[in-house]
Specification:
Layout: H1 3-7, H2 15-20, H3 41-53, E1 55-56, E2 59-61, E3 77-80, E4 84-89, E5 102-107, H4 109-119, E6 124-131, H5 134-145, E7 149-156, E8 163-168, E9 174-179, H6 195-198, E10 203-206, H7 216-229, E11 233-236, H8 248-256, E12 264-268, H9 269-275, H10 284-288, E13 297-301, E14 307-310, E15 315-318, H11 331-345, H12 353-370, H13 383-394
Helix pairs in contact: 4-11, 11-12, 12-13
Protein name: fructokinase
Family: Belongs to the carbohydrate kinase PfkB family.
Pathway: Glycan biosynthesis; starch biosynthesis
């Protein structure tokens, strides 16, 4: 895009400005201008030159440095993986084909966790790749608006931001339809990683979707190793999405390929059933099969019934909150955000069962409150909302 091509275009309407929206808005932008801009390219040359200088290897760094969001905090949680657009039906209890309309919402499990932690008052950063498109820059904006550091975000000019249509059917089962052929998140390369942020993490959190294809798979492994080498705890939520994997076997093998490197693992009953090839997910002996020697905490979520926890020294169950469910999208991610917030601030939870139970009670409330609204990120609660909900239970 030549600089001259921008000269006679209103700065608020140009493609360049749309790209700049992921950072601070241009002080020269004029909303709603319908004619030639009075501010010529001479004024903006340094801004645009800076923008194009950031292009490298087919990607662009997010513009927002988020100076108000520190990346050297001792409780920083860095979340790695996909960020996408969820389309959620405006009417509950229908299949995707039956839904009359959809609501656009930001999503993607690792990004949900990052925003969830920031909403709860913690420090979070996100590392991943989106398309150099309107949805991609919208997602970068959403991270910044929610005080999530997005310096590690990259934009791909050759691939679109991923889309997912998700609904909760009348039978209670979720239905997914993904558009990734390939999407930008699948194309993140190792040389695009922001290692400075990764090495500052107290906890490095990820899922399994980034393990499905190259080059993202190798990038995932490299990022996790860098975090571990720097002293971070590794947090893993497999987040099983079978339609995205080439086969059932590849999904099981892929998820388990990095199992033994994690310090914290969160799984659902469905995932236990899948990973153990059909064993009873309610049997503690079955769950213990998934507990590897270096694991510090294994968490099993049970939806409205709460969660189970397993450590080297103790195990138990913490009840959930009863709420009216509207959309379960993001509930597990909100739970993860709640528990990682506490662990990042105080890792002694691994040794103190009473303290761990209190943290899990908080995490259960995070998950429960999220299902009362549509979408994942729009529904993630604040710390004040969670504490209020817990206080009401004691009244």
């Amino acid at each position: 895009m030549a600089l001259q091509a921008v000269a006679n275009t209103c700065i608020s309407c140009s493609a360049a400005t749309r790209r700049l929206r992921s950072g601070s808005p241009s002080p020269f932008a004029k909303a709603g201008c319908g004619g030639p801009c009075l501010i010529r390219v001479a004024i903006h040359k340094s801004i645009l030159s800076s923008f194009f200088a950031r292009r490298s290897r087919g990607s662009i760094k997010a513009f927002s440095v988020n100076d108000h969001v520190p990346v050297n905090d001792s409780s920083l949680v860095v979340c790695f993986g996909e960020m996408l657009i969820d389309f959620v039906p405006t009417t509950s209890g229908l299949s995707l084909a039956e839904a009359p309309a959809f609501k656009k919402a930001a999503g993607g499990a690792p990004a949900n966790v990052a925003v969830g932690i920031a909403r709860l008052g913690g420090q979070a950063a996100f590392i991943g790749k989106v398309g150099e498109d309107e949805f991609g820059y919208m997602l970068a904006d959403i991270l910044k608006q929610n005080n999530v550091n997005n310096q590690g975000m990259r934009f791909d000019p050759g691939a679109r931001t991923a889309l997912a249509f998700v609904t909760l059917r009348a039978d209670g089962e979720r239905e997914f339809m993904f558009y990734r052929n390939p999407s930008a998140d699948m194309l993140l390369e190792e040389q695009e990683l922001d290692l400075n942020i990764i090495r500052k993490a107290k906890i490095f959190h990820y899922g399994s979707i980034s393990l499905i294809t190259e080059p993202c798979k190798s990038t995932h492994v490299a990022a996790a190793k860098a975090a571990k080498d720097a002293g971070a705890l590794l947090s893993y939520d497999p987040n099983l999405r079978l339609p995205l994997w080439p086969s059932v076997e590849s999904a099981r093998d892929g998820i388990l390929s990095i199992w033994d490197s994690a310090d914290i693992i969160k799984i659902s009953e469905e995932e236990i059933f899948f990973l153990t090839s059909g064993d009873d997910p309610f049997d503690d002996a079955v769950v213990r099969k998934l507990y590897h020697p270096n694991l510090k905490l294994l968490l099993v979520t049970e939806g409205p019934n709460g969660c189970r926890y397993y450590s080297k020294h103790f195990s138990g169950r913490v009840r959930g909150l009863k709420v009216e469910s509207v959309d379960t999208t993001g509930a597990g991610d909100a739970f993860v955000a709640g528990i990682l917030l506490h662990i990042a601030k105080d890792a002694s939870l691994f040794e103190d069962e009473d303290q761990l139970r209190e943290a899990l009670r908080f995490a259960n409330a995070c998950g429960a409150l999220t299902v009362t609204e549509r979408g994942a990120i729009p529904a993630l609660p604040t710390r004040e909302t969670v504490l209020s909900a817990l206080a009401n239970l004691l009244v």
